[in-house]
């Protein structure tokens, strides 16, 4: 496995003073995802929890629906020299799982900056949703929600040394952290969280809250909906399409969760 952080030489300037320093920076490397041996996507990610990342991505894209849909997950050699760089992950589907269309019009695309691009639409999410949120009335107190950002931040160990990572955390309705994952891409961090749950056969995540350290985009709402998560909170703003999807899908969407303040953009009945 590759390192999560590395040390680089920098020129540190403060006022009129200059000195040579070593700085910790987060590692960013490409990971190729293969499905039954066929390349389907590449993401720039922080090494670590790669199997969670691969399976979480496939779950939130509707390719798989649970742990039993996966036969094996393994690292394999690169396309050119066959050397195992731990940057290529191959997921073999169980025999009962149909293989999706891997032609270019399927347009799988993973990126550390923008997630899945070029095919995201409301209709696509409607067709692929396996865990409907309608009828879920479980709630969480505003006081508990207000504590989550500090809990998430306290578990961002790599961020403490680099300042260059997004985080996603899954919490129960009492505010207890279940899992926290960091990555250069906020979408990757969420996929790692979902993959963690899939490996432990915990789907759907119907009694949980997902908190992300950045903004709430359409793609993050999509990933929450596809995982059966009824509530997504972000420390920054949501987009208009994220709000539209959350309202339609039955997801509680919270933005600007900072201290005791928050904006509830969709399905506020779960906040008590």
TrEMBL record:
The keyword Chloroplast does not apply. InterPro entries: Cytidine_deaminase-like (IPR016193), FdhD (IPR003786). Required for formate dehydrogenase (FDH) activity. Acts as a sulfur carrier protein that transfers sulfur from IscS to the molybdenum cofactor prior to its insertion into FDH. Keywords: Cytoplasm, Molybdenum cofactor biosynthesis, Transferase. It comes from Nocardia terrae. This is Sulfur carrier protein FdhD. One of its GO terms (cellular component) is cytoplasm. GO terms for molecular function: sulfur carrier activity; sulfurtransferase activity. Belongs to the FdhD family. It holds the Pfam family FdhD-NarQ. The active site is at 114 (cysteine persulfide intermediate).
């Amino acid at each position: 496995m590759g390192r999560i952080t590395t040390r680089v030489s920098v020129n540190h300037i403060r006022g009129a003073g200059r000195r040579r320093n070593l700085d910790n920076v987060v590692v960013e490397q490409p990971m190729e995802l293969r499905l039954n041996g066929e390349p389907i996507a590449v993401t720039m990610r922080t090494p670590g929890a790669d199997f969670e990342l691969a399976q979480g991505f496939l779950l939130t894209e509707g390719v798989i629906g649970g742990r039993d849909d996966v036969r094996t997950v393994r690292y394999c050699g690169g396309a050119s020299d066959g050397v195992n760089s731990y940057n290529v992950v191959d997921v073999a589907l169980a025999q009962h799982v149909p293989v999706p269309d891997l032609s270019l019009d399927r347009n799988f695309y993973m990126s550390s900056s923008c997630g899945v691009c070029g095919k995201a639409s409301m209709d696509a999410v409607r067709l692929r949703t396996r865990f409907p949120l309608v009828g879920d009335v479980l709630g969480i107190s505003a006081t508990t929600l207000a504590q989550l950002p500090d809990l998430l931040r306290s578990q961002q160990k790599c961020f403490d040394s680099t300042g260059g990572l997004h985080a996603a955390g899954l919490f129960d309705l009492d505010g207890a952290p279940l899992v926290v994952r960091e990555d250069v891409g906020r979408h990757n961090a969420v996929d790692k969280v979902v993959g963690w749950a899939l490996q432990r056969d915990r789907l759907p995540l119907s009694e949980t809250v997902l908190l992300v350290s950045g903004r709430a985009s359409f793609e993050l709402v999509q990933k929450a909906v596809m995982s059966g998560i009824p509530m997504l909170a972000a420390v920054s703003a949501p987009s208009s399409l994220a709000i539209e999807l959350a309202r339609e899908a039955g997801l509680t969407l919270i933005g600007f969760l900072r201290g005791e303040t928050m904006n509830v953009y969709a399905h506020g009945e779960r906040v008590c």
